[in-house]
Every structure is written in structure tokens, then in C-alpha cells.
Amino acid sequence: MSSVEARTASEIDADDPTASSKRRAAAAALRGLGILVGLGALILVALLSVWVGTRDIPFTSTWSVLWQPDGSDAAVIIHDYRIPRTLLGLMVGMALGLSGALMQALTRNPLADPGLLGVSLGASSGVVVAIAFLGVGTALGYVWFAFLGAAIASVAVYMLGSSGRTLATPDRLVVAGAAVTAVLYAFNYAVLLLDPRAFDQFRFWTVGALSGRTYDIVNVILPFVVVGLVIALALAPSLNALALGDQMGRALGVNVGRTRVLGAVSVMLLCGAATAAAGPIGFVGLVVPHMARFVVGPDQRWVLAYSMLIAPILLIGADVLGRVLGAPGEVQVGIVTAFIGAPLFLALCRRPKLAML
Predict the structure, then answer these.
(1) Cα–Cα distance measured from residue 274 to residue 42, given in angstroms and rounded to the nearest whole number
(2) pTM of the entire structure?
(3) 20 to 30 A Cα–Cα from 321, which one of 10, 15, 21, 215?
């Protein structure tokens, strides 16, 4: 073998900047094509979500009343029930996927998920208080209390993680999140065991579902999801620098403390809104970032973008699958995602390179 053939690709790129730039351009083009493919898949599952349900409506009728509502029973079902459900699945999926990718990047922990900072259990505590002490009994009423509980839990975790003169580090945040989660878990079940009525209401919310949600809930969580998305995407370059370590990140000009605070705010907004609207849905925020890294590598700009696409495809697809499997009823999406996510995550664990951030 000649010396030219023995050189690695990186050495060739160093000698030939043009080849290196072409390689990067080709990779960016493939990733951009992947975004277009993902958008197409998302549109497809969204159409399936509008079409498939417990009430059998022909596709031609679905397509017709989708654009021209005629006041028929089919039009009412599609516009008042299935479209809000699909929109909610889109927003909840984007929020969970993006918050999961953000959590794993901020903590440099491949097993991190949106619930690691106590956000999900904080939302659950808010719902428990609303049901047991305030008599709230509607999904729309749960939203505000769930979001308030998520916000309080997030603030408590960050204050505990940054107590003293040291800034909040990934390890301290994880420990603080575990402590707050344990306290909230004990509080929730102490209240629910003492109040059977509250337990009966809470168990329907805690399974995780998109059914029965209306445009009111979509409108409530939309501003929080949009703000959380903007913050998360704006942090992508800083997250790439933080992946090299705090010291290297500071050397590259990143304000580590501000990045972590903004990241925590984004996770709280995204995960809090998603949990408030649909209940706790597991595995989406944990598995989707790994799938994104498998496709695009460790660059957080692409990981966040792909997570925003893959997560709603997975969530809406699981919701459609639950309607098909449970016909003439349905299996709630939180159960379906657990059955899909658990074996998928086990497969990911068998490939150590997929867990690298």
C-alpha cells in the first residue's frame, strides 16, 4: 500500500481544504434532505391521525370535509375532535423531543429525560392539588395547575442545585432533581391514598393521552411551547461548546451559567406544557434524541432539529396505532409509547456508540 493510500481521511482533508469543504457540504445536503423526508412523514401521520378513529369515515369524505366543513357528523368529528388532537400531538411531541435532547446536552448524560429535573412530577403534583383540594375536574382546569407545579419544581431543583457559592453543575442538578422527585412522589401518593375520589380522577390523567383535548388546551400551551422552542434552538451553538466540558466552553466564549439557566427555563416550558396538556408520556424524550444522533451525529444544531421532527412522528403514530389496536375503543398513547419506547431503548443500549453525546 502506498503512503497516499495509507493516509486517513482527516489527513487528506487537512492537505486538501477543498475536499474537506465538499465533504461538509455533502453532509449538510444529506441532513437537509432528511429534514424534508421527515416533514413528509410528519404530514403523512398527521393525515392518518385525522382520518383514522373509532368512527369509520371514508378517506374521500375525510379529505372533503377537512377543507370544506359542511356541518355533517363527519365534519364535527374531524374539526372538533381529531384536528385538535393531531395539533396537540404535534406540539407535545415537539416539546418532549426537544426538551429531551436539551436535557441530555445540558447534563451530558445520555440517560437524561425531561423528567430528570422533576418537571413531570411537579406537573403531576399540581394536578393532584387541583383535584384533591380545589375540586378541579376538567382537562382544561388541570393545565394551569400542572404548569404551575412544573414551574415550582423546576425552580426548586435549580435553587438546590446552585445553593452556596457554586454554580449549578450537571451533577448537582441531577441530585437535586432526584431529591425533589422523591419528595413529590411521596406527597402525591400520600394524598391519593387518603382520597379515593382524587385517585379515580388522577389515574385517567396520569396514563398520558391526547384524546378528549380541545382547541382551548391547544391555545393555552401554544405560547409556552413556542417560547421554549425558540430558546432551545438559540442555545444549540452553545450546547456544542459545552459538550467539550465547562472549561473548554468558557474558553470558546460561552457563558456556562446563563446557558444552563436558559436551558432549564426551556425544559420547564416545553416539558411543563406537554405534561400539563397530555399527562406524563414516557420514553419519547429519552429515546428520540438518540435516534436523532444516530442519523446526524453529535452536532446539537441538527440533533435539536431532528428531535423536533422525529418526536411528533413517533407520538402521533403511536396515537394512531392505539386507535387501531383498541378498536372500537382505543389504547391511550402513553401506553403505546411505553411499549414502543422500551424495546427501542434496549436496542439503543446494545449499541454504545448511539449513547455518545
Answers:
(1) 18
(2) 0.86
(3) 215
